[in-house]
Amino acid sequence: MIHPLDSVISGSYILAIFGIGLWTGLRHQQRTKDDGAGAYFLASKSLRWPMIGLALFASNISCVHLVSLAQSGFDTGLLNGNFEWMASLVLILLALFFAPYYIRSGVTTLPDFLEQRYDRASRDWLTGVSIASAIIVHISFSLLAGGIVLETLFAVDMYTGVIAISVITAIYTIVGGLSAVVVTESIQTIVLVVGALIISVAAYDQMGGWQEMESVLKQTHQLEKLSMMRPADDGSGMPWYAVFLGYPVLGIWYWCADQTIVQRVLGAKDEYHARMGPLFCGFIKILPVFIFVLPGLFAYTLAQTGRLDLSVLKNPASGEIHTKGIYTLMITQLLPTGLIGILVAALLSGLMSQISGALNSISTLVSYDLYQRYRPDTTDRQLIRVGKISAGLALLVSLLILPLLNRYESIFNGLNDIIAHLAPPITCVFLLGIFWKKASAISAKITLWFGSALGFVVFVLAKLAPQSIIGNVPFLMVAFYLFCFCVMLQVVLSKTFPDAAPSRLQLLYWKTTSDLPAAWGSYQWLSLLLGCVMGLLFWWFR
User: Fold this and answer.
1) Are 247 and 49 contacting, i.e. CB atoms less than 8 angstroms apart?
2) What is 4-28+45-402's CATH superfamily?
3) CA torsion 508→510→514→517, rounded to 10°?
4) Cβ neighbours of residue 222 under 8 Å, at least 6 residues apart?
5) pLDDT per position as a tens digit, 5-41
6) pLDDT tens by residue, 302-328
7) Any stretches that span the bilayer, and where are they (predicted)?
8) Which CA distances in Å does 174 have to 204, 357, 390, 509?
């Protein structure tokens, strides 16, 4: 249990966010009446790059990241920081190549883009997958991590705690739409980063600095924990080649083709802001390795020296240490009263921003890609009502599947394991759709269907026979192999069943290098700078 003062601080924060979100939503009610559904779902396409960048970061970073990246830092060192830094490189792709085509096409959702580029069947399939992934990946896993935090710190039942937070978040999200989501996410990003910095500084100070930590790792023969580029025979299942081959498959789906994330870009004021927002987020993504992963590594060395008591994480029956709770343990043992409340507020920020973003994307997908299809003459008011109802139902489903996801030993690995089997066909059809004009409609449809079915079969076989050949393949390499299969399938099918009139797609794919601007602008230079910074960081922590 934490001190009453900390409970007051964290409770006040929740109420403040609820008030700001509700106020923002009510303030935009008139705009919704004037501009219709576009104001509710896409904030009237008025978002500027600073808000887009902050909202992208907040939509990605949730309790899952704070809790599970600290756990991974404790267990494997800086290794899972690859997921954060590789994301910066993928965000460059979003800014340079994907975002302009999304904005030029004027789409409301990414399934809508697939219909314009391919056909209706591709849109329908992506809609279903996007709704399911938003429920499982973005909401349920976040609720699971948030439940662990609330149970550990406040001694409340996990499900009671997450239901309360979910209801509060759902109210302002459903009332305010994307405007409320983006405003609250921008605030939550700042609170989250400040809170993470506090625990990082506290762990660093308690350890006595970087050299002391390195000395402990040397004594315990664990210096490899400081390396992000592991050799081919590394037991972690994430050697360097798996990171560079497998992560882009996951990352391009997540950052460039997932409605929950990209919806902020679709709400951009213009193409410039749609490009600059992801780049701004790419620079912010440098921080998580130092403020989310590194504290877990400090926790490991503190435990080795007896300055962090792990006994409360021990299972009484087996005697094993359950490292899922390592982040909350650090909060309670390393921070004084008052600062604990701020850290709890930061954790809740991540949880609430993830839920709000996912609910808004689900409501958009259901309204535009499902309901409006069967009722094309529906009014904006009806679209908004359907979106609000669908958001409430999605939250209920997310709560019901929590017990199934809780079976994963590592939340972060469980999350990425699911994405690795889900992403390959979607990444394939978006990449070929943007960069290859001959990618045909029938090839995309079959690739999505068959690729998704194959991913599901591989996932089930790996779980039923974990010691089999399939079960022993690292999930990043599973994603890469599935992606290669999908690319070959779509290329062969595109050659066999070409589209009759590709000229109708001129605004939706990369034609030649003439698509590049004649002179470099700010976003090109920023992309180059971000790429160079990431290259230096990977080399330093190789």
Assistant:
1) no
2) Sodium/glucose cotransporter (1.20.1730.10)
3) 70
4) 77, 300
5) 888 888 888 888 888 877 876 776 655 555 555 555 5
6) 999 988 888 877 777 666 777 777 888
7) 6-26, 47-70, 85-104, 125-150, 162-183, 190-207, 238-257, 278-303, 326-348, 383-406, 442-461, 473-493, 523-541
8) 41, 11, 10, 35
